[in-house]
Amino acid sequence: MNIQIYNSLQELSQAAVEMFLSEINGSSISIVVPGGTTPRYFFQFLSKSLVDWKKVTIILSDERMVPVNHRASNYAMIKKILIEELDDDKHPQVLPDMEKFRSENFENIIRKTNILLKEKTTVSQAFLGLGSDGHTASLFPGKNNPSGSNKSPYFFTKIDGEPFQRMSLSMAFLQQIPKLTFLVSGKSKQEVLKTIIDSKKSKLKSPALRLINNFKGRLYILCDQESYLQIVNA
User: How far apart are CA 230 and CA 86, in angstroms?
Assistant: First the structure.
C-alpha cells in the first residue's frame, strides 16, 4: 500500500491526473473513474491536459439510474466538467452511456454496457472514491455486493431511502484491475481511512477494506491533510 499525503484536494487531484496521464501510451486505453464530489478537480484538471481522448474509454465506477440532467448523475458531472470542455471531435467514450437512459430501459442499459466492457481493452487502472462509511463505487456495507462468483462487470443495487436504483462495478471486476488508486479528502473520511491503513486491527470490514485486503495489484491511497490528520495524531 502506497500512501501519499497532500496539502489540499487540489494537490491530490493534480497528482491523480499525473497518474492518469502516465497510463497513456498512444494505444487505446480503458480507465475507471469515481463519481461524487471528491473528483471534481480531477476532471477539471484532466480537461486541460493534452490527451488523445478518442483512444480513451472512461468507465464510471458506479452510476445512479437517473436522467442525464439529474443532479445525482455522475455522468452529468463528468459531462459538464470534462466532456463539454473538449473539442467536439476529441471526446472519450464514456460507459455507461447515460444519454440513452430512459426509465423503462434499465435492463437494456446494463446489458449493453456489460457487453461493451467485455469487448474493451483490459482496464489498466481504477480511480475510486471512499465514503465515510467505507463504501467504494456503490458497494455499500450491509448490501449484497457480488464478489468472486459474479461474472458481469456491472450489477444493480438499491440504497435505502434513495428513490432510484444504482449500477455499480462488482468487487470481482475491481479486484482484477492491476492498479487501484483511492482519492480521499475531508475530515469525514478520517475514521474510515484509519481502519484501512491499520487494517489488521480494524473490526470494521467495510467494502473498501474487503477490496483492499483481497487486492493483488498495485494499490495507492492519495489523501489530503484533513483526512489523514487523525491518523497522525493517534
Answer: 39
CATH classification of the domain holding 87 = 3.40.50.1360
Residue 156 has a pLDDT of 92
Tell me the residue type at 122. Answer: T
Q: Is the pLDDT of residue 132 over 60?
A: yes
210 is in which domain, residue-wise? Answer: 2-233
Report in angstroms the alpha-carbon separations of 112 from 40, 115, 205, 222.
27, 5, 33, 33
Q: Which residues are 101's β-sheet partners?
A: none
SS3 87: coil
In angstroms, the CA 122 to CA 4 distance is 26
Count of the separate structural domains present in the chain: 1
Between CA 155 and CA 111 the distance in angstroms is 9
**In the predicted model, is pLDDT for residue 201 greater than 70?**
no
Beta strand residue intervals within the chain, DSSP E: 2-6, 29-33, 56-60, 62-64, 93-95, 123-129, 154-158, 165-169, 179-184, 218-224
Sorted by sequence, the CB contacts under 8 Å of residue 138 that are 6+ apart come out as: 61, 62, 157, 159, 166, 167, 168
pLDDT band at 149 (very low <50, low <70, confident <90, very high): very low
